[in-house]
Amino acid sequence: MNKRSGRHWLLLRGLSREAGHWGEFLPLLQAQFPQDRIYTLDLPGTGRRHQETSPDTINAIMESVRQQALTEELLNQPLTIIGLSLGGMVAWEWSLRYPQDICAAALINSSMASLSPFYQRLRWQSYPNFFKIMMQNSDFSRELAIIRCVANRRDRDREIAMQWAEIQAERPVKLCNTVRQLKAAARYRPGKNKPDMPLILLSGRGDRLVAPTCSVAIQTEWQLQLKSHPWAGHDLTLDDSDWVVKHLKDWVEQLSMPPEIT
User: Using 50, 70 and 90 to split pLDDT, how confident is the model at 136?
Assistant: First the structure.
């Protein structure tokens, strides 16, 4: 990708989600980059770390994830991070604090409190859905409600809800950790500096959870590249993994091109 890249990818999911929720996106990404190494890590309080208590700041979540990356020896070469939503905030903070760790980053449907108001970062239209989700009395019903909130495709809802219900049954996310992650995201204000590395924003124009204008605000503030999907929702990799992989491939090829001589 660039001269520092080791072609090592690290994927970070968002609020109350874990590595298992990447689904078909992982093998598609690996197929597109067969020589690359692709890793996933869970945020504290989710996945393999579901019994831990999540910090309630993005910086502390990032430090915890980075320590896990160090422990698993993932930082021997600079990483290209893909962060979805809350994972994007963690990726941005990591890139600011430890630029030697990261050679590039892709942020999917992310947002920042310093750039967008709370009613755009969590759209007011989605508030009733949260109450409906909390009222569900089974993992399947709850995950089905989540899917119908974060994705716009309807052809695989029940199939994916069954998979996600199994994840929740095996590695349940505690409500207190969801609340702590929400608190961290709501207060995230990274300041005026931009990470000194290639960055790309991917956004779904059909996002009913976080307004697409939040990605536009990040693009405008720092003059970043933004690719917008015409209809996908918040979980862009669930709605259209092929589209995400294609744009990541185009981005990688663009970064691999020698700079123009002027």
Answer: confident
